[in-house]
Amino acid sequence: MKLGATIRRYSAAIRAMVVFTVILGIAYPLLITGIAQLAFKDKANGSLIKDASGKVVGSSLLCQQYVDKSGNALPQYFQARPSNAANSSNSSDPGCNYSYSGGSNLGTSSATLKGTIEGRIASYAKAYSIDPTKVPEDAVTASASGLDPGISVENADDQAASVAKARGLDTATVDKLVKDNTTGRSLGFLGEKYVNVVTLNLALDKAHPVTASS
Q: Which end of the chain is more exposed for a tag (fewer CB within 10 A), N or C?
């Protein structure tokens, strides 16, 4: 093969690489990013939630645990579902830790999992004064990611009276906020309705701030 032909082939290959790098590696990502920022800015930026002062306090896509320093549930807040997204070396980590997303990886035949769920059922039933046989499934099981911000409507309804009492509110007021923070089924028929605990608790704090007497 002549040297000139070889050079032309390599030159064509290099030019093609440069052209496609510019198109697919620079222009296309910039175009998609631009469209996302214009049409879906909130979602593209992580669905961040800000408080009244404009400070970012979380994301509507990620759960938060509302507990005290000892890991005890704060009664004035709705509680997220259990989470295994926790630092296993830190016994006080309550979960919803974004650095440790994941599940327990325990199977249905696991005695450990069975004991954990039985304990959660007993605690939930006692906390909200309901029949242990009627405890919602999502109240005692963790999501695969451990970061699910949603709970079932049934779960939220069970907690409403307790939250209302802790805040000195009537249950109807809390029920209204639950309804306002309930998301319907996708496309009207896929999945189940759920209540976003993060946005619900923020709405509670905004409309009815916790006081020392609450």
A: N
Q: Distance (Å, rounded) from C-alpha 52 to C-alpha 203?
A: 11
- Domain residue ranges of the chain, discontinuous segments joined by +: 3-43, 47-207
Tokens linked to 211? 């006081």
Residue 162 vs residues 19, 72, 203: alpha-carbon distances, Å: 63, 15, 17
How buried is 81 (Cβ within 10 angstroms: 0-12 exposed, 13-18 middle, 19+ buried)? buried
Tokens (6 digits) for 157: 């309804």
pLDDT band at 54 (very low <50, low <70, confident <90, very high): confident
36 to 30, 31, 75, 160: CA distances (angstroms): 10, 9, 39, 37
- For residue 201, the Cα-to-chain-centroid distance in whole angstroms is 13
Q: What share of the chain is helix, strand, coil (3-state, %, to 5)?
A: 50, 10, 45
141-158: per-residue pLDDT in tens? 999 999 999 999 999 999
